[in-house]
Amino acid sequence: MHITRRDFFKETAGATSMLAFGSSVPAFLARSAAAMEAGQASREPVLVVIQLSGGNDGLNTVVPYQDDAYHRSRPTLRIGAEQVLKLDSSLGLHPAMPAFRKLYQEGRLSIIQGVGYPRSSRDHDAAMEDWHTGVLREGVPPGARSGWLGRAIDAACDPGKTDLRGVFVGEIKAPFSVHTERVVVPSIKSLEEWLPTGAAWSDSTRAHDSGPSSATSSGSPSLLAGVRSATANARLIQPRLIAASQAIHSQNAAAYPRFPLTENLATVAQLIRADLGIRIYFVELGGGGIGGFDTHANQAANHGALLRELAESTAAFVDDLNHDRLLDSVLVMTFSEFGRTLTESGRRGTNHGAAAPMFMIGGRVKSGLWGAHPSLTDLEEDAPKFHTDFRRVYATVLERWLNLKSEKVLAPGFAPLDGVLV
Amino acid sequence: MKPDPNDPAWAWAPFQPDAARPWDLRLAAHLYRRAAFGGTWPELQRALSEGPQATIDRLVHPTPGAADFNRLYDDYENAAATSAGYGSQAWWLRRMIESPQPLQEQVTLFWHNHFGISNIHVKDNASLCRHIHVLRQHGMGSVEALLDAVLAQPAVWICLGARDNGRRSLSESSVRILMEQYTLGPGHSSDSDVREGARALTGWIISQGELRFVPGEYDAAPKKILGQEGDFDRKALVRILTTHPATGHWLAQKLVRWFISDTAKPSDSLLAPLAKQLTGDGSTAKGVEMLLRSNLFFSAEAYRQKVRSPVELALGIIRPLEGRTGTVRLAADLARLGQELYEPPTIQGWAGGLAWINSLTTLGRAKLAEALLAESGAYEGKLDPAAVAKRHGRATNDGGRQFLVDLYLQGDLGAETIGALAAGPSATGSVDTRAADPRQIAARLASLPEFQLA
Amino acid sequence: MAQWIPADTPIMVEVSEPMALLGPLLSPEFGKSVTTELENGKANLKLQEFQGVVAAVELQLGTDWRAGLRRLAGKGLSFCVDPSGATLLAVDGEDEKLLSKLNGIIWQFASSGADQQNQPETVASPNYRGVKTWKIGTNEVHALLGPRLVVGNRTSFLNKVLDLRADAGGKTLASSALFKAAREAVGKEAVASVFLNLQTLRETPGLKKALEEDGNPVTALLLSDTKAALRSASWFALGLYVSGDKLILRTYTDGAAPEVSKWTSFSTLPGAGAELLPPLTVPGTIASLSLYRDLHSFYAAKDALFPERTSGLIFFENMMGIFFSGIDLTEGVLSEVRPDIRVVVAKQQYDPAVGTPATQVPAFAAVLRLKEPEHFGEIVEEAWQKAIGLANFTRGQQALPGLIIDKENQDGVKYTISYYRPPADKSSGAIDARYNFRPSLARPGDYVILSSTDALARDLINAVKQAPSTPAKTSPAVNSLMEIEGPALSAILQANREPMVRKNMVDKGDSREKAESDIQMLLVALGHLDHATLTLRRDAGRPQAQLEIRFK
To answer: Which end of chain B is more exposed for a tag (fewer CB within 10 A), N or C?
Structure first.
């Protein structure tokens, strides 16, 4: 059962009465309400980043099933032409990912191959910090570091205003990617823990409907106005969030298996639908820390299970958004802190590597394989070499999707990629 | 003297109440909010009868029980810091509530924000715990002694990059932080000063979580820093930095931002007298005292001109109700609202002001108020507004509403809002039989936009 | 009482012989000893409150409180909760007149209190179905039906009960099939029983979540089919029996785990006559566990048992892969371990040369048996040393001290120990919590002892040598057995009293006095435990737990 945006707006105050609040309503809300009434869905683009923790084995995710080197080096883990889900004559997806192949065939999935960075680290903490900060570690004391998405969120928030531009949805401590210098990025384990339930909240804010600002001796006009504006927003979004929370609970589990990632993405979908102004969402698969993708031993079953969780959860998310024609304003990007070695570890697993593919999913990706598959004969320490610096992928997403200047977020010199987005 | 907030003579002169600006409940509560996280009813009443300067005497001067209290809590915090979880932060929150000298906790929090040392990078609760203890120990004293003690701490060196640095010295960016964030402020140190400063700090390494001096790594040749020349080591560098006039100025600016207003942009001439109190023979205590006693502090420039940080929000609800809640859960709830003690986001501390506020955190703050005041649940109903109203003879048929408005907001509400609160039953038409419930009223008041300002 | 309770009441507690339960607690000697303990332990607040109430009641009723209790409640107690959360308590006394007198006193207090507060309307005495009921405030209503006092917190519920009492043929709990089945299972010898209607209760969010398949392999291993059975059960009952100086609690349910084999195959003893090994005891034992768990068939079924691949499970398999150098965990490692698994938790003696940690963690060890010790024993040794090495490496990365490995000898059994270097600064009182651990591995015969301290490993080497592999004396089909020694448990908690008090203070915001008072009450209560035994078994496919408690 899908709740449409129209239903949400019907349940809340309704567009016209929102405008009666005058200056305390942020412009974008009023705009999108007006657009709703006009029957369009004009939406700011939204980025959803899925972190795969532990180092995803790219070679068994996007499989070079015709390559002899691949088959020779992976006696127990190799995936042959009969099991692979073919994308083209040389590459295919892991058999646990039919949901992704379907997205690929529908033109909604693009794969950027060979992504990494120079002198990349093969240590979990260091590599993850590189991906989180955009390798802004060298010469930056730890106390001065922030996450690349944190910087993007800070840049997207006007000082003096109280916009909400980024959230983390998940159980673990928010990864450093969204670590900001200035604004607060809420960490959402469940919507309930953010929602006051008592009459106290609704009564106190209702008290404000009845008139303009009170006596000016009670404080700074700009601070009070800022707080009031946020309170007005909060009052508007609360019913939507309550409805979202209920919808998540009632969504039928029989439709597809409910993995934890499915739940988190369902929450993200509801938040997108509720149109809170959030531009950046961050979720995680693998449990953070050393992470589930770190398959040194017995990789086959475990990696397959995780890829299935990734593919099916993301596909369900895409379906959800597509239902309400929101998909065109959403871009999903996956990343992991490194790929893995070509050769098996002897424990039916693989070790830490370097380059790996990144998935881009959404209504406006240029479906296909971007960039060549790295050579399996010209390796560096048993792992494929990168050809595309991940910061160029970041720059693409910042400039071509979020319309943010990448120099506010990344070091200079990373040009966006052409041909990834439509 | 004509009241002029830009005139240093007027601004720093001790506040004398008059007809234009009487000493009333509003100003008394303002003082207690800024100096003590919030005042109880007896404290406010006593303040009203004693007058501002006498009340400030009591807030500023160390109370007899404070030393023993702090020793006991140091012990609690140290023991809790050895295990994972919010133990020692929870004890600090409890200390903020219970301390016989809450101004000292405000100042400790100020320094925690100023130095911005974060456990995200140190990854050792016990180390952060010791850092905070040092901030408390020296926080009211001489700035030179404080910086000296702070630079003796491994946690500080780790955040400045000592662990990452292969060479036995801090990088130039780290020294720049020391000069531009911690002492002089931006624009007073040249690249050469930074380089020479880095040389003065050579020889110190982090080994097994401790800071050790390796004489062989120390660069003993003379250095030229900020116009002075000599064989400067760490201690000498601290002295040069803290005695530089720019430091007094920079710290004065920070103190004004903390104690006066989030939006203040004080001129250099306005800051000069305060800067003087902080440097030389001065101390933070002298500076803070001058701030609290001043006309500026009690003027409209300061009144309700700060957005409450999550800690100030929670304590502003708890302290006036003369209660005490479990603080482990509170530490987690405050972290969720953006203020995790021991983890300021960067060296620049928490940005503060409207950065605390967005639509979700507004909901979260209302939820915290609701949870703190609920009869049961995570905070076990330990705060009891009804009992407090009764104790002070203010329990009436209105469910203590007027008392709570006085205690929490001192009437800083529009007439419409007070009217709407008095109306009681919710507009949906259902009769809310608990409309006159003091807990509900207190939660409502704490969720108002006006309450978010301190 | 059940014949007056509505059939849809999901929770019903009945105490048919209160005196059998309370008897020993009511003796004057017991009372004196408890009072002294509470006073010594500073539980003064609660004690004073209690003593005050007791004195007041004694005065009013004109009777000693012990005798009074007998006369008021000696014949039985019932307590139930209806689907909306309304509660009801029925007290059956011997002395109708005394009950009536008590009622009168309560009523007097209530009405005069209401008058004082100027709210006379909060007390009322309406009639219902010809029965006089009394209402005090919004949350209390009661009625006196002969020698039975019925007290509830909601009038609607009490009225339903009075309806069922007045009219014949209503749908009562006593006539409900589930309740009857539960009662029959519990039997007449029970002095108290609890009935839970799981069809109704399963929908409550807390219980629903607790019974969910949470993918946690440890709970799945320990509890085996219990949760799965409760998910399909219609009712659950608890019976309390008194046997000599022992109190016995036994659970009953009609639920059985669906898809029986995946949940029960790894905890079913093979064939008739097969029984558990007895739990091991060493000096200072706090708890000792004996389990029958076939780890091989458990882990072989992991895809069916845990369809969700948690990151914890993946991490575990990674680590096992590293430790066992790639041998397949299910077919190569777990298949080498016999299903007899025993665990011991015992109090530690700390080396005075090293010091005592502030928080004292008891020593714990697992005792397994290998099928082929000559071949697999050294593989286990290697895995153990790899694990210690990895722990050291990880700690080293965080500048934390690591463990030093050494070998020692006990009666011809060479075993591996590891320990932290003693603290440099010996004068600083309580030492770091890591000194609670000296991980050790011993392999006497076909046993493998994985212990958190070397002392416990030594004690267990002796214990397995002495104890023959004769089965424990338990009822058939018991697959899990746990023994708890009361005095040892009390001792370890007493040793950790200060950390517990502090945790209470900061978790709940209590003052030191209150925290000490609360902890002391807990310690005094636990202090009366002599021995407890917990067993799990399956009865016709249905899980059953039994807890036997002996008091001092």
So the answer is: N
ipTM above 0.95? no
Q: What is the DSSP string of B31-84?
A: HHHHHHSS--HHHHHHHHHH-HHHHHHHHHSPPTTHHHHHHHHHHHHHHHHTSS
- Name subunits touching A (3+ CB pairs < 8 A): B, C
Nearest Cβ partner for B416 among A142, A204, A211: A211
Q: Is residue B222 part of a domain?
A: no
The count of domains in chain B is 2
Token pair 């043929």: residue: C169
Interatomic CA distance for residues A394 and A379, integer angstroms: 25
Please, what is the angle between helix A299-323 and helix A98-105, to 10°? 40
How far, in Å, are C343, C413, C443, C453 from residue C465 at the CA level? 16, 11, 11, 19
Query: How near does any CA of chain C get to the CA of B76, in Å?
Result: 8
> Residue A397: which of A162, A226, A163, A156 has the closest Cα?
A156
Note the pLDDT of residue A205.
54
Q: Are A176 and B419 in contact (CB under 8 A)?
A: no
pLDDT, averaged per 10 consecutive residues of chain B (454 residues), comes to 86 93 95 96 96 95 92 94 90 96 97 97 93 97 96 94 70 93 95 94 85 88 93 94 95 96 92 93 94 95 95 98 95 97 96 94 96 93 93 81 91 75 51 65 91 94
In chain A, what are the domain boundaries? 1-42, 45-408
Residues 413-432 of chain C whose Cβ lies under 8 A from any Cβ of chain B: 432
Residue C438: the pLDDT is: 96
Q: Is the pLDDT of residue C36 over 90?
A: no
Whether C506 and B87 lie within 8 Å, measured CB to CB: yes
- For residue A219, name the pLDDT band (cuts at 50, 70, 90): low
Q: What is the residue range of B30's domain?
A: 18-53
How much is the pLDDT for A40?
38
Rounded distance, CA C454 to CA C408, Å? 9
Cβ-Cβ pairs closer than 8 A, A with C, add up to 59
Q: Is residue B101 part of a domain?
A: no
| CB pair distance less than 8 Å for C310 and A295 | no
Q: Cα distance from B58 to chain A (closest Cα, Å)?
A: 26
The token pair at C363 is 């020593």
Per DSSP, helices labelled H in A324-385 are none
The residue of C421, C506, C514 whose CB has the most chain B CBs within 10 angstroms, and thus the best one to mutate to test that interface, is: C506
Is A2 a residue whose pLDDT tops 60?
no
- DSSP-derived letter for residue A398 is I
Query: Is residue A300 over pLDDT 60?
Result: yes
Using a CB-CB distance cutoff of 8 angstroms, which residues of chain A are in contact with residue B345? 146, 179-182
* Region C57-75 average pLDDT: 77
Question: Looking at the domain that runs over A45-408, which CATH code has it been given?
Answer: 3.40.720
User: Using an 8 Å Cβ cutoff, are A339 and A383 in contact?
Assistant: yes
- Whole-Å CA distances, B139 to B149, B278, B341: 10, 12, 17
**Backbone angle region of A168, left / alpha / beta, with phi > 0 → left and psi within -120 to 50 → alpha:** beta
Instruction: Say what the pLDDT of residue C43 is.
Output: 60
Please write the tens of the pLDDT for every residue from C437-496: 999 999 999 999 999 999 999 999 999 988 766 666 667 788 999 999 999 999 999 999
Q: In this predicted structure, what is the pLDDT of residue A304?
A: 93
pLDDT of residue A287: 84
Within a 13 Å sphere around the CA of A85, how many CA atoms are in the beta-carbon half? 18
Residue C66's pLDDT is 73
pTM equals: 0.89
**To 5 degrees, how large is the angle CA C406–CA C410–CA C412?**
105
The CA distance from A150 to A143, in Å, is 14
**B325 vs C: CB within 8 A:** yes
Strand C403-410 and strand C413-420: the pairing is antiparallel
